[in-house]
Structure formats: structure tokens, C-alpha cells
Amino acid sequence: MMRVLLIRGMLVGLASVVPAYVCAWFLGEGPLGDAIAFEDRQSHAAEGLHEHGVEVVSRLTQQTVGLAVALAAIGLAVGGLFAIMFALAHQRIGRLSARATSMVVAVAGFVVISLVAFLKYPPNPPAVGDPETIQQRSLLYFLTIVIGIFAAITAVQTGRRLTPRYGGWNASLLGCGVFVVLVGIAYVVLPGGTVTETGFPPDVLWDFRIASLATQAVIWVTLGLMFGALTERDVTGARRERVPKVHA
Amino acid sequence: MTQAPPARTASLPAQIPIREIIPWAVFALVVGLLLIYFVGAEQGATSLFGGNLIHEFTHDGRHLLGFPCH
Question: Which spans are transmembrane here (chain B) (predicted)?
């Protein structure tokens, strides 16, 4: 069964490329292009070398195949991990249907993996962020995600432990509370985010960040809905199979 | 009345035993982290292969998926 679920998760993750690409194309490529234009203007003014000066990969390739392949790789990775999270959650986080469990896992995945890091270290378009600090920023970004995952594990364990005493709903709320407190402590302890380069248009920065968050949300929602629908069909299909089929 | 024995199809049991999940979880984690690394960090924060081909190729995706790019 686990093999079926894992393959399904990875395939659904791969399929999420389609809506994610549409989202990234229509929301993201505009501000991304504006940011690159800003960067070019700046480097022309400074007469300095910069990384977009020599085109290793053309902009068109970056916008089409490059973006699609990057989304596909992340879709495969996240889809596989999603299937594992679903398998762990199925019938262990209350008596939810496969469809509902899938959606809960998707929302939790979005919050823990995407939103926690987004709120502390929001993504930056080209020209924002000092290349000198890329290692430190990457480390903090991934560290925040890992902290979020540990906070989520603690929250789920707390919720499960408190369920007999407070009931499923209240125990879940308490679990969410534990998650928020742990992430809040991490936010306070971790150093601040990046400083936006002066002169960068704030509306472009806002649009870019919203596009980034939307693209990630689309991946999670697609996973939650499609994986849920397919797995629900499995469950009801299996139920129907118990009634001996009449072969025509 | 005899009931048909539950067929070993791809039906979803009540809970999937942790022991059954673990090997697949390890596999998904290794493949997943490898993919995430190449899309998210290679030739940015760290670099296994020289140059910046992977960085430039995944450039738009890396930015839009929220990774620090450069």
C-alpha cells in the first residue's frame, strides 16, 4: 500500500507543475522581469560585473524549461514527502476520511514548510539581497524550516497526548498553540531578515513575494485535493469490492 | 452466508503500520532532499559542481519557490 501511495504522491506532485507553472507565469514572471530590469539598470550605472551580465542560460529558457523543471523537481520531492505524511496521519489524527486527511496534511505542509519560513525570511527577487550573505541566508532559511518541522512534530504529539483528556478538537487547538509558541520563540531568537536594497520598487517586491507564496500554495492545494480524491476513490472502491461483483 | 475474503487490492487499511512506512519514508526523504538541494541551493549557498549552470537554469523556480537565490 505504501508503495502505491508514494508513487501516487510523486505523480500528483509532478502534475502540480501545471497549475503551479500557470501561477508562477502569470503572477511571478512580471515582477521577476521588473527586478532583473532594475538590476540591469543598477549595474549599468555602477559599470560593475554582475551575475546576469554573462548569459549562461537565456532568459527564455529560465522562464520556460528552467522554471518547469524546477517546479517538477520540487513537485516530485514534496509529493513523495506528502505521501509519507499522509500515511502517518491516516487514521491517526482522528477519524477523518482519506480526502479530509489529505487536505489537513496539505494545509499543515503549507504552513510548516512554506509559510513559517516565508514570514521570517521572505523570498527576494533578483537585485534584492546581498550575494555576500547568500550562505548565511540559505542556512537560516533551511534552519527555519527544520525548526518548523520539529515544532509541528511536538505539536502533533502534544495534541495526541491531550486528546483523551480534552477531546479531539480542543487537543488539536492546544497542539496548534504549542506550534505557534515554538515558532514564535524561534522567530525572536533567530536573527533578522534581509535588508532591501535602497531604491528597489516596493510594489514589485510585494508582488514578487505574493507570487512566490501563491505558487507554493498552489502546489500544496493541488497535492491535497488530487491525492485526496484519488485515495478516497481507493477506499470507497475497496468497500464496494467486498460485495462480490457480478460479471456480465 | 460466507463473505468474500478481502481481496489484496490497493485498499487502504485502518492504519498503515509504521514499520511499513519507514523504508519508503527513507527513500522519499533521500530523493526529496536531493531534488530540493539541486533546485534550492546548488551553486548558490554551496556548490558541488563548479560554474553556475544549475543556478541559472533553475533561477526563476528558485526565486519563486522562496529559496534564497543570490
Answer: 21-40
* Domain-embedded: residue A177: no
Chain A positions in Cβ-Cβ contact with residue B33 (cut-off 8 Å) = 77
> What's the pLDDT tens digit per position in A65-110?
999 999 999 999 999 999 999 999 999 988 899 999 999 999 999 9
Partner-chain contact A32 B63, CB within 8 Å:
yes
Structural domain count of chain A? 1
Q: Are B68 and A92 a contacting pair at CB < 8 A?
A: no
Where b means 16+ CB within 10 Å and e means fewer, A106-143 reads bebbbbbbbbbbbebbbbbbbbbbeeeebeebbebbbe
Cβ distance A66 to B58 less than 8 Å, yes or no, reads yes
ipTM of the complex: 0.86
Of A24, A56, A138, nearest to B53 by CB-CB distance is: A56
* Full domain range(s) for residue A32: 2-129+194-241
Write down the domain spans for chain B.
19-64
Beta bridge partners of residue B46, listed in sequence order: B42
Structure confidence at residue B7 (pLDDT)? 44
pTM attached to this predicted model: 0.89
